[in-house]
Amino acid sequence: MSEAAIETPKPYTVGMVLYPGMTFLDLVGPQTVLGLHGKTLLLWKSMEPVATETGNTVNPTTTFEECPDDLDVLFVPGGYGTNDAMKDEAVVDFLKRSGKTARYVTSVCSGSVLLGMAGLLDGYKAATHWACYGALAASGATPVHERVVIDRNRISGGGVTAGIDFGLQLLAELRGERTAKAAQLIIEYDPEPPFATGTPDKAGSEVIADAMGILGDMDDQMIATLNSRAVAA
Amino acid sequence: MSEAAIETPKPYTVGMVLYPGMTFLDLVGPQTVLGLHGKTLLLWKSMEPVATETGNTVNPTTTFEECPDDLDVLFVPGGYGTNDAMKDEAVVDFLKRSGKTARYVTSVCSGSVLLGMAGLLDGYKAATHWACYGALAASGATPVHERVVIDRNRISGGGVTAGIDFGLQLLAELRGERTAKAAQLIIEYDPEPPFATGTPDKAGSEVIADAMGILGDMDDQMIATLNSRAVAA
Q1: Fewest beta carbons within 10 Å, which of B50, B75, B162, B187?
Q2: Confidence class for position A231, pLDDT limits 50, 70, 90
Q3: Contact status, residue A155 vs residue A185, Cβ threshold 8 Å
Q4: Domain assignment present for B1
Q5: What pLDDT does A10 receive?
C-alpha cells in the first residue's frame, strides 16, 4: 500500500557533469537524493578519474559521447574549477547539445555560471553561490538570491549545501511530494547549523572577509572568461 | 589581520574510511568542511576503486597499512554497506588499531555502529541514523537522539546530512569558532528543507513507513552481526 506511492514504472536518468576542481558536495548532495529512485550517470569527456577540489578522484560512468540524448535531468555542479571548465570546449559543447533535449536543465553553486556560459540560461532566473552573482548576471541569467530557483524547466540551487534542498525539490517534481518527504527522512535532513553564518547577510563583515580570503576572485575570473566569449562571438 | 585567524601553522590529517556500499554524502559533507584547512585521506585496504551506495566509484588515496598512526581525526561514514563492513576483519582491525592513537574518533550515521563493532564506543554516548539506534546500543554505546554528540574525544553525527553539522562542529574543535563560521559561509549552509519530515517525530507514520520500505531491516541485520561477535568472543 504505502510502497505503491514510492514505486513508479519508469526510472529516470540524471546526467551529472564532472570536471576537475568541482566541489564534490555540490554533486553528492543531489545525487544521494535523486539516486534513491533513478539512475545517476557521472559524465566526463573520457573515462579517466576526475579530481575534485580536495584532490580526491572519482571515476566517470559515461563519456559525453555515450551520454543518452534524452536525459531526464542534466546537472552541473560548481567549484573552484568552474572557470577552467568554462574554457573547455568539450564541456561547453556537451552542455549546449544535452541542454537542448534534457527534460530539466539544472545546476548548483557556480555550476549555474557554466550553464550560462553554454547559453542555457539566457532569459532565465537562476540561483548560484553568493560569491558568484556578478558572473551569473554576466552569463545572461537573472540572478535570484534564493536557495532554489525554478523557472520553467531550469532548476538551480545556491552555494554547495543548497544542493540538498535543490535535490529534494527536484525529486518532488519528478516523483511527487510524498516520495520527496520520505527521501528527506532517509537522509535525516533536519539541519542544525552550529552558527548563524550561512549567508553574507547573516555572517557579517569579518566572517565574509575570512571566507573571501579562501574563495579568492572566482567571480572576477569568470566574468573575464564570459567577456572573452562575447569578443570571440 | 583577519587572515591570521584562519591560517594556522600545523595542518591536521583526517583519515576517512571507505567501504563498499557506504553513503557517500556521509563522507563528502564532513570532507568538504574539514578539507578547507587540512588533509583528508581516503582509506581502504587496497588502492582499488570502492563503490558507494549508488554504484559510483571513488579512489582511495592511502591503504590501511600505509595510514599514519597519529591521525588527528579517524572518521567512519555509514550506509547500506555498514553491516558487511562490520564483518570485514581488515576494516575492524584497522579501526581498533587507528582508534587507539587518533586524537578524535568520529563517525556519522550507521558508521557509529561500525565504530562500536570495533569496541571504540564502549561507555561512550554517540549519535547515529534514527533507524539504527537498536544496533548502536547493542554495540556498547549509549545512543543519544541528537544531531551531533561530543563525549570526550568521540564525536558522532546522526543520519547522512548530520555530517555537515558534525563537520562544522569538529572544525570548530580543531581550528576555533571563527574558522568554522567562515566555512559555514563558504558552503552557504543556511538550509531550507522543503518539508518538515527530517526526523521520525516530525515525519509521521506514513512517511516513516515509506522510508522503512527503502531502508529495510539494516538495524536487525547489524544487531545479528554484533550478537555473533559476542558469541565468538
Answers
A1: B50
A2: low
A3: no
A4: no
A5: 79
Is B5 domain-assigned?
no
pLDDT digit string (tens) for B136-170? 999 999 999 999 999 999 999 999 999 999 999 99
pTM for the model:
0.94
Average pLDDT along chain A: 94
Is A132 part of the annotated catalytic residue set? no
Q: In terms of residue numbers, what domain contains A137?
A: 12-232
User: Does residue A65 lie in a domain region?
Assistant: yes
- Would A61 be classed as within a structural domain? yes
pLDDT > 60? residue A233: no
User: Residue B82's domain is classified under what CATH number?
Assistant: 3.40.50.880
**Radius of gyration of chain A measured on its C-alpha atoms:** 17
Q: What is the pLDDT of residue B168?
A: 98
pLDDT average, residue stretch A140-156: 97
> What is the DSSP annotation of chain B?
-HHHHH--SS-EEEEEE--TT--HHHHHHHHHHHTTTEEEEEEESSSS-EE-TTS-EE--SEETTTS-S--SEEEE--STTHHHHHT-HHHHHHHHHHHHH-SEEEEETTHHHHHHHTTTTTT-EE---GGGHHHHHHTT-EE--SSEEEETTEEEE-STTHHHHHHHHHHHHHH-HHHHHHHHHHTT-----SSS-SSHHHH-HHHHHHHHHHHTTHHHHHHHHHHHHHHH-
Contacts of B25 in chain A (CB under 8 A): 25, 28-29, 31-32, 187
A2-11 residue pLDDT tens:
444 545 557 8
- Of A33, A109, A127, A164, the catalytic one is A109
Residues (pLDDT < 70) of chain B are 1-9, 230-233
| Residues B168, B14 contacting (CB under 8 angstroms) | no
Total domain count for chain B?
1
**Residue B227, φ and ψ in degrees, nearest 5:** -65, -35
Give the SS3 label for residue A15: strand
Query: How far, in Å, CA of B48 to CA of A224, rounded?
Result: 40
In Å, how far is A140's CA from the nearest CA of chain B? 23
State the complex-level ipTM: 0.93
